[in-house]
Design a protein that fits this description.
Blueprint: E1 2-6, E2 13-18, H1 25-29, E3 36-42, H2 46-56, E4 61-67, H3 76-88, E5 96-101, H4 103-115, E6 121-126, H5 129-135, E7 140-145, E8 148-155, E9 160-164, H6 173-190, H7 192-206, H8 210-230, H9 245-255, H10 262-279, H11 285-297, H12 310-317, E10 323-324, E11 327-328, E12 330-335, E13 338-342, H13 347-355, H14 358-366
Parallel strand pairs: 2-9, 3-4, 3-5, 5-6, 6-9
Antiparallel strand pairs: 1-2, 7-8, 10-11, 12-13
The chain binds nicotinamide-adenine-dinucleotide and glycine.
Glycine (GLY) is lined by residues 134, 138, 140, 238, 241-242.
GO cellular component, one term: cytoplasm
Function: Catalyzes the conversion of 3-deoxy-D-arabino-heptulosonate 7-phosphate (DAHP) to dehydroquinate (DHQ).
InterPro entries: Dehydroquinate_synthase, DHQ_synth_AroB, DHQ_synth_fam, DHQS/DOIS_N, DHQS_C
Amino acid sequence: MQSLQVDLGERSYPIYIGRGLLGQAQLFERHIAGRQIAIVTNDTVAPLYLEALCHTLAKYSITPIILPDGEAFKNWETLQLIFDALLAARHDRRTTVIALGGGVIGDMAGFASACYQRGVDFIQVPTTLLSQVDSSVGGKTGINHPLGKNMVGAFYQPKAVVIDTDSLRTLPSRELSAGLAEVIKYGLICDAPFLGWLESNVDALRALDDAALRHAIERSCAAKARVVGSDERESGLRAILNLGHTFGHAIETHMGYGVWLHGEAVAAGTAMALEMSRRLGWIAEAERNRALRLFIRAGLPIVPPVEMTPEHFLGHMAVDKKVLDGQLRLVLLRSVGDAVVTADYPAAVLQETLVANYQALFEQLRSQ
Ligand code: NAD
Ligand code: GLY
């Protein structure tokens, strides 16, 4: 088992990464203060892993809370189901909530933990690649609003993150690819050598090679822990973790939550951020192409939805959380491994980026 630390003073916590961790009671016990726990999961993950986790934690009084599966359910109504179950089973302030599932479950269970009786402990047990490399670390929790993705939420750190890489064996390959979008992101924003490693190992990752997966997860979590440790509440640096997300969130909101997977929207959104960085003269065409080829090899889209016009994008992007005083700040690349957050770009370049021919680029790169 590997273990990393997110350094946030009294809110610091460990990230455990390894095989078979769902069965290791002592890993959980050291982070559970009371006798009651609630395991929040969904109707896809519950049949796979709930019984095993309940067995591991059999000495506690457990309330399983099984939510409907999907991004479309990351909303107030579903959040309320968590509070209903906690209150019905008389959970007190010493209870610990365990999020067992992907990013949707982690974000909702974390937000519920931040709110229930003004805050109870929670532990992240992420079971998708995306949640293992990104959403379970860093304490961003929340739900979607029909007008904007992740628009309602709280910064609230877990007590621990327990990553059992065995859980990836049951993950559909489309979901594994979606997770790779966030893995590639770390290479692009702050770890250029990791991008080279990914080029050599993307096939092993897609084939679920455990050593490759553990390396990718550890390197990704280490990058995220570094960034979050220096800017927990996103007053500056942390925004670089949102490379491709401003365009990507527009795609998710416009297409309807769950139609494009989050990682797919991030991949196409990152293609747009790369294209804009190239048009600004910051990265070379060869660097853009190198990154796009990696997305394609990871099984990810680099072409935004054809039905989305520049006006659609600009309308959704105007409610992005990086808008300050009416100015849209974007995460762009000065070079590979060096991201910046800036509102200092000509509007014409953004416009050109929105109408660029990504389909032609895809055809060209695919055939090379
Ligand atoms: P998800 O939670 O919807 O999970 C994807 C699918 O895989 C779901 O159908 C789920 O039930 C299923 N699943 C989960 N684990 C499984 C397993 N082991 N085997 C088989 N099926 C399994 O999606 P996701 O990609 O994990 O997370 C996306 C969400 O995370 C989005 O809502 C996004 O906004 C959020 N997110 C949050 C942060 C953050 O910092 N909080 C960062 C990135 C993304
Ligand atoms: N996923 C972006 C962040 O955690 O800041």
